Amino acid sequence: MTTPANKTATDPAYPGYLSGKGTLAFFDPLSQEAGSKWGSHSVSDSGSCQFTGGAYHASEQLKTKFASCRTNMIFSKFAFEVQLTIIQGECGGVTFREDSIKHFYFFRVCKDGTYKVSKYISSKGSDAETLLWSSSSVIHTGLGQQNKIAVVSNGSIIVISPLKWLGLT
User: Fold this and answer.
1) What SS3 class is residue 98?
2) What is the phi/psi pair of residue 71, to 5°?
3) DSSP labels for 29-42?
């Protein structure tokens, strides 16, 4: 990944999980809809995705479902980082590697300091396989706490930062 002009691989603020090689496809601060790869919309009966107060919010209405706020861009190798703040409810997270038949991974961080990485093989939650489920002292607990979470995917290797290396197929 080529670093943006104001970031270099030797910069102390540059994420340690990135190699500093590759091509930066896009940078989206998710602060406003204009120019973003994501958009505001309702997600059927499960919630909404919207820009509010300079941030992108995913809201869920039902505990048994989660709002999937996604872009139509497709990448085989990527690094994805978000600042996650749970302002209401229990957990938040990111989905990645979703295909046309609803196979995807879900990295969830909860306000109690637990995290979970699941592999979904259909749109039914009962078909999910838990790959990791634990707690970490690096997760800031409680509502309103900001956590930087990241996923790096390169072939069968997935890095969940700052938690674990996973060799997944």
Assistant:
1) coil
2) -105, 165
3) --S-STT-SS--EE
- What CATH architecture applies to the domain 77-167? Sandwich (2.60)
Q: How far, in Å, are 34, 48, 51, 140 from residue 54 at the CA level? A: 12, 16, 7, 22
**What is the value of pTM for the model shown?**
0.77
How many degrees, rounded to 5, is the angle at CA 46 between CA 109 and CA 135?
10
Domain boundaries for CATH 2.60.120.560 within the chain:
77-167
pLDDT 10s digits, 40-71? 888 766 788 899 999 988 887 766 666 678 78
pLDDT one-digit tens code per residue, 9-32:
444 445 555 666 666 677 888 889
Q: In what order do the strands lie in the sheet with 55-60?
A: 41-43, 47-52, 55-60
Residue 45 CB neighbours (<10 A) = 8
